Amino acid sequence: MMFQNKTVIVTGASQGIGKELAIQYAKLGACVVMADIHEELGQSTCSKLVEDGHKAIFVPTDIRKEQDIIHLMTNAVLHFNTIDILINNAGIFKPTSPYDLSIDIFDDIINTNLRSVFLCSREAAKFMRLNPKGGAIVSMASTRAFMSEPHTESYAATKGGIVALTHALASSLGPDRIRVNCISPGWIETGDYDSLREIDHSQHFSGRVGKPEDIARACFYLTDEKNDFVTGINLTVDGGMTKKMIYEE
């Protein structure tokens, strides 16, 4: 129960990696605040956690809106008295040719994936700095901050921005004992894992595609208060895929 009674906020918690993070932190004793725009999915998971004896609430949140984020943080403190950990996980991915990418779509992805990380971190830090031991912030970047497929300009820009924002915030918030790190997941399968092919797994040094629990364990490391010497980093969790040398045959 390494996170016993720690208040953990997870954005994008209704499905995928965010859902797994909420469940795993709750199992380790945390008071989990689940935030997402998809209310029905999120509330269902939250209700199940509570039924199983865990501490959790769901707060409907559109992370593109500053007032929603302020409301999220206020509700977290209202229910659990403090904020110890923030996981900035929410994000959207809309591959679009740069010739067809409208400024509205570009701005929406920037606001959802990147601006929200700043706003959530800023508002959570206002409460974290009141804690005797500060707090920890982890944001989800991506290996796509460093490598690309066609038509992913807006997404890559946000993930590269998260990496830069991470070390900037680590510098600014360090005096308040707030550690700020990010994780760059590689291929993390959130759907039918058993349907993956051998060629999918063999692209990785690890010999397998990643699972959401791989990211959860990385978050545990970065948010464990004993690891207070780790801040400002980007932790790549990709089974070695981005280090594999590939030659066209």
Mean pLDDT: 96
For the sheet with most strands, the description reads: 7 strands, parallel
What's the CATH first level?
Answer: Alpha Beta
Distance between the termini: 50 Å
Number of domains: 1
Low-confidence stretches: none
Question: Considering the protein shown, what is the CATH homologous superfamily?
Answer: NAD(P)-binding Rossmann-like Domain
Structure overview:
With 249 residues, this protein is of the alpha/beta class. It has a single domain, classed as NAD(P)-binding Rossmann-like Domain (Rossmann fold), CATH 3.40.50.720. The chain has 7 helices and 7 strands; from the N terminus they run βαβαβαβαβαβααβ. The chain has helices at 16-27, 39-51, 66-80, 103-128, 153-173, 198-202, 212-223; strands at residues 7-11, 31-36, 55-60, 85-88, 135-140, 178-185, 234-237. Helix 1 packs across helix 7. The radius of gyration is 18 Å and the shape is globular.
Give a quick precis of the structure.
The protein has 7 helices and 7 strands. The chain is of the alpha/beta class.
Write out key terms for the chains shown.
single chain, 249 residues, alpha/beta, Rossmann fold, 7-stranded parallel sheet, 7 helices
